[in-house]
Design brief:
With 536 residues, the protein is an all-alpha fold. Helix 19 crosses helix 20 and helix 28 runs antiparallel to helix 29. It is elongated, with a radius of gyration of 35 Å.
């Protein structure tokens, strides 16, 4: 009798434990609704109940991956492979991680191995296609290839059709993309992802009414799917229809969950997608006060304040973000983190610090190098910090050939720091490329004047004669084009008039002073010289 009771107790306990384990469908629903806290809890419970289930670690890894925590995601994928070295899903996860890292060789090894293991399983082949699609370093052609294969293996799977549509969008084939989405909803009228994607196509094409129609259809079919609410919110904010935003935002928040992680994601959404910076700041400041451990909120506060050009607040939050990141190894840093911090420092006039921060940014986004260097070069020039401007123009020249404008500012920087020979060399280079560039000739004349004044030799070189003559040739036809040109012509005529006096060619000198009087009739120096020259 005791054995029977004990057996019944064991059976009851097992049934109770089984009843408490969430279903896979529940976990996936949490994952798709971006309710990552509940998703992780559900998948972890499944893993605990079934320790030999290697593939569940793929989904645990996916939670971390979507939160931007690649390090923890990789640990989960590898744990699945420790349990079963032939876990195809975990190999897909590792392939995606290596693809993000641009380690193409290792990525292909993982994904090809997964392909061999799942060659008869359309779900695995679709996962590989999705990895190529969702990676931060995506490959649209391979995504199309694998998703097409998965679709061929199971043409009734609406989700595969929807993913294939997104892959076609990635390679720029909008026609095939729309066909794939339409097929997805034909196969399964409740395939909300397809309606969402079609809504995004129409939204990108500025056809908001058609986009709203598709997104509302998705909500009608699956009112507890959080994703279409996000897209609708973006559209209504863009259309300034804020009265429609609030109820949608409340619904999205309730679907995404009420845990702290969901609140952080809401702040991210308000900043990054909805661009509702005031709401992001309000919610972010409130959350970080009660939950200071949620350090990623500093990221979105820095971003939101910067977009409102509140640079000191943006800088302060960036500083707090990096202080928190430094406390624990493995915390993710994004290029935008460095960019917003550097931008705020720059706007606050802390240029040297901004440049140090930008160097970290440029290691991750090297294609922006020329733009950033140019920003510093022109700013230092405008701030009259000519030595630093020279440094940055040379840095720019190491990346690419300087154009005429760059060389002009470089030449002026040398000129204003009394580096006359270097300045003359730069302007000589300019007029070699553009012989008709009047300003280049004028600057050579000004530099020649400075060199002549510094020259202690008995024989004067008159270095400015030829440049002034060339400047007059290029500019005299339109002396009224600007006050600057008029004054520069006066300067040139005066110099050449004086030059010919010293050469004792008074007729030639008189011609230049008469040209000067024609554009500056009250010039006392010229009038006095004309009087004397006529007497001669």
């Amino acid at each position: 009798m005791k054995k029977l009771v004990f057996a019944l107790v064991l059976l009851s306990s097992a049934a109770l434990v089984q009843a408490q384990v969430p279903s896979m469908e529940t976990g996936l629903q949490y994952l798709e609704n971006e309710n990552y806290g509940d998703a992780l809890e559900a998948f972890s419970a499944i893993a605990k109940a079934d320790p030999k289930n290697s593939s569940i670690y793929y989904y645990i890894g996916e939670v971390y991956y979507r939160e931007g925590n690649s390090e923890e995601a990789e640990k989960s994928y590898l744990k699945g492979l420790d349990i079963n070295s032939n876990c195809a899903e975990c190999k897909v996860g590792m392939g995606k991680i290596r693809l993000d890292q641009k380690n193409i060789e290792d990525s292909e090894e993982y994904l090809e191995s997964a392909s061999r293991l799942g060659r008869k399983d359309d779900k695995i082949i679709a996962l590989i296609g999705e990895a190529y699609l969702r990676s931060s370093n995506p490959n649209g052609e391979k995504a199309v290839d694998f998703l097409s294969r998965a679709k061929g293996m199971n043409p009734k799977d609406a989700n595969t059709w929807a993913l294939l549509g997104e892959a076609y969008l990635l390679v720029g084939n909008n026609g095939e993309a729309m066909t794939a989405f339409e097929t997805a909803v034909d196969k399964d009228p409740t395939a909300t992802s397809a309606y969402i994607s079609m809504g995004r196509i129409w939204s990108a094409a500025k056809q908001d009414d058609l986009a709203i129609e598709q997104l509302e259809k998705a909500i009608e079919l699956a009112p507890n799917d959080a994703l279409p609410y996000k897209d609708l919110i973006e559209i209504y904010i863009r259309k300034n229809q804020y009265d429609k935003v609030t109820p949608l935002l409340e619904k999205y928040s309730s679907l995404a969950g009420d845990d702290i992680g969901a609140k952080v994601r809401l702040i991210k959404f308000l900043t990054f997608q909805a661009k509702d910076y005031d709401s992001a700041i309000s919610k972010g400041e409130a959350l970080i006060q009660t939950n200071p451990e949620q350090y990623t909120v500093y990221r979105w506060l820095a971003w939101a304040y910067a977009e409102k050009e509140m640079w000191q607040q943006s800088y302060n939050n960036s500083k707090k973000l990096f202080d928190e990141i430094a406390k624990k190894k493995g915390r993710t840093v994004f290029p935008s983190d460095y960019e917003y911090w550097a931008k705020a420092a720059f706007q606050l006039g802390r240029l040297d610090e901004a440049w140090e921060i930008y160097q970290n940014y440029l290691e991750l986004v090297p294609e922006r190098t020329l733009d950033i260097i140019d920003l510093f070069a022109t700013t230092y020039y405008k701030d009259k910090e000519y030595d630093k401007a020279i440094k940055f123009y040379h840095l720019k020249g190491e990346q690419d050939s300087l154009n005429i404008t760059d060389n002009y500012w470089l030449g002026l920087s040398y000129y204003y720091t009394d580096q006359d020979l270097k300045a003359d060399s730069v302007f000589t280079r300019i007029i070699e490329d553009r012989p008709d560039y009047a300003q280049g000739w004028l600057m050579r004349a000004k530099i020649g004047n400075q060199l002549d004044r510094k020259d202690t030799s008995e024989v004067k070189q008159f270095r400015s004669k030829e440049p002034y003559e060339k400047y007059i040739e290029l500019s005299a036809e339109n002396p009224d084009s600007s006050e600057y040109v008029r004054k520069s012509l006066v300067e040139a005529y005066d110099y050449l008039g004086a030059y010919w006096v010293q050469q004792e060619d008074y007729e030639k000198s008189l011609e230049y002073y008469q040209e000067l009087i024609a554009i500056d009739p009250e010039n006392e120096r010229a009038l006095e010289y004309i009087k004397l020259l006529k007497q001669q």
